Give the backbone structure.
Amino acid sequence: MKNKQKIVLALFSSAVLLSGCATDQSGASDDGESQEDTVTVTEDRDGTQTDVTVEVSSGITEAVEVVDEAVVSVLNMQTGSDLGSYGYLFDFYDLPTPENSEEDGELEEAGSGSGVVYKTDGGDAYIVTNNHVVEGSDAVEVLFINGEKVAAEIIGSDVWTDLSVLKISAEHVTKIAEFGDSDNLVVGEPAIAIGSPLGTEFASSVTSGIISGKGRSVPVDTNADGVPDWNATAIQTDAAINPGNSGGALVNIQGQLIGINSMKISTSTVEGMGFAIPSNDVKDIVAQLEENGEVIRPYLGIQYQPLSFISEADQQNTLQLPESVTEGVVLTSVVPGSPADEAGLEAYDVIVSYNGEPVTDGVNLRQHIYSTDVNTTVEITFYRGQAQETVSVPMMPADDVLDH
């Protein structure tokens, strides 16, 4: 019997268990000089001690040296409260919080992850990390490899791609990661992960492996309800990615950023299956987050559920579908005035195709919609009873529709 695999985000609140500043593991000496690329060891040969010089530099050490100082720890700080375990009742019943309860609470580290400095602009520096690293934070702090800690501002986040952009003062930034081309990766080429597994005590940890696969479709549960609601397109690597590596760098042998480490498969029988968001996707998303604070996606205006959730009897009697229709999504409601409504879609219609691509379930449809450029027109094919129909739908931004 096969064990059921479970996809888990690679961030845990390890920081509440670990304390202390990050140690400098970059190989730098106290005076700031780089570590030499050779070391001298003593061998005992036939009773005679002989000093032997050993070459320790490699493609990996050179790649790490290029980017290590651009990889930081990201601390999710949350406000403690003297309300204890009963604090949720005030929100639940919409009651005013007792005076001074928030003021008495202090910022505490609720979790930690990693991030990568990818840009400076004037006196500001920009860091990309995972959305789940900073989600729910009251404040965010960034810890550099040398122990310097600075406050960070969240510029924008996107739950679907699990990316977030932070802004900090560029004062302490010494290196910036250069984006590589994730489309040109070759399966089997070296891959190096850098981050802060298990908290800041192990900051700037380096693991290495290879690119195990490209374009992997990985189911992700974004709202922790136990049901996947998104399929992330990811790079697969066997470089060790542990809790706290989330948001850290996956780099190639040139030290270029080829991915943002995000998740792993965690079971008792699976090892070496970590996943990173491809750098070409990251570049597009961070540009939108910098400009808008969010990713602006098109809005269709429907509620739906997979056809597979509908019993065969209801498919035949209520929906009156042809027996040949076995996949798609059933519209449970259509928002008045939405693009779907304007195009003539109705409740109980079953969408089977989006712009020529098959629609198999709700996750699949959401990805089709979110992959569409705003202000473009798409063709949606659906069944209304036995009849197959196709309509053209202008995909407008949600704000434009709702403000109309």
Q: What stands out?
A: Confidence is low (pLDDT under 50) at residues 1-35, 81-90. The CA atoms of residues 183 and 280 lie 7 Å apart. Residues 279-292 form the longest helix (14 residues).
